[in-house]
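Researcher: We plan to redesign the surface later, but first we want a full-length starting point. Tokens attached.
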């Protein structure tokens, strides 16, 4: 049956049972919904003539075209949004001028800064700095431990969560770990500021804040031992020593019957785990066992 004929009879409520079945099988259900939704805009009348129906049909065709136009527009919106996000990421990544370098466990690396200053990063450490206008603003953030050989020039700042080190041209080491902040000056002059504790270090001076306690002292080294693959400690809690062992060998250490605050003086090499364990445990009258490739259990003396 003709679709418009059926719709016209439906409007007049004169469909026969057979015509109703044919009407409800029409695939133009949207048209019916549109007619119902818009019928309230027409005044009640005793007549539903052909002109009324043609008006409905014209309005429906117009609204249908608008829907199609919007469907074409949606993909364009998605494309525009994608382009916008891509440009945003581009400016963040390529125009922020931030350089971030980090090391993994048992890894060390050397970075040359824009002024040819050099930074040696110890295991599990990172630095972040801006390349742009570096010559006028020599400043970087350090997390972990690093040895600096600073080229002469304007002030050079190393910022950590524990304090700030300021120099002009010198060589120094900074260790910033959990509750452990240490600066050693090997050449030149270093100014260290941590909270209210301000010191100016000369070559051979050390500055240390361990578990909230400040100490200063002397040394006779010409470079940090870790840059020669050895970690050394002087009166440091054994838990700090074993944490460094974990970083250098990418292992997990478990303690049993150990006073983790016992002080340790000595060191270990970074090229042989068993020799390193012997160097740590024997002076402390402890033993060790290797349970797997990355798990070590340290035993203290039984009570």
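Model: Full-length starting sequence:
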């Amino acid at each position: 049956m003709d679709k418009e004929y059926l719709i016209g009879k439906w409007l007049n409520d004169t469909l026969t049972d057979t015509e109703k079945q044919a009407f409800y099988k029409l695939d133009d259900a949207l048209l019916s919904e549109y007619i119902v939704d818009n019928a309230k805009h027409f005044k009640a009348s005793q007549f539903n003539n052909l002109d009324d129906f043609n008006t409905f049909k014209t309005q429906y065709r117009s609204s249908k075209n608008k829907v199609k136009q919007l469907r074409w527009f949606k993909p364009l919106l998605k494309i525009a949004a994608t382009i916008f996000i891509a440009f945003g990421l581009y400016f963040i990544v390529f125009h922020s001028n931030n350089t971030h370098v980090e090391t993994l466990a048992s890894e060390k690396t050397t970075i040359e800064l824009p002024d040819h200053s050099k930074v040696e990063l110890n295991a599990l450490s990172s630095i972040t700095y801006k390349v742009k206008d570096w010559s006028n603003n020599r400043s970087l953030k350090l997390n972990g431990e690093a040895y600096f050989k600073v080229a002469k020039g304007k002030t050079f700042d190393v910022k950590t969560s524990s304090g700030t080190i300021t120099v002009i041209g010198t060589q120094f080491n900074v260790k910033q770990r959990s509750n452990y902040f240490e600066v050693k000056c090997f050449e030149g002059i270093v100014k260290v500021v941590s909270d209210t504790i301000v010191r100016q270090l000369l070559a051979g001076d050390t500055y240390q804040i361990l578990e909230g306690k400040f100490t200063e002292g002397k040394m006779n080294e010409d470079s940090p031992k870790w840059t020669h693959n050895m970690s050394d400690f002087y009166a440091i809690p054994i838990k700090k020593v074993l944490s460094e062992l974990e970083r250098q060998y990418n292992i997990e250490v478990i303690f049993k019957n150990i006073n983790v605050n016992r002080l340790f003086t000595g060191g270990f090499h970074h090229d042989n785990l068993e020799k390193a364990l012997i160097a740590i445990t024997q002076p402390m009258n402890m033993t060790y066992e290797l349970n797997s490739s990355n798990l070590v259990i340290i035993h203290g003396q039984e009570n």
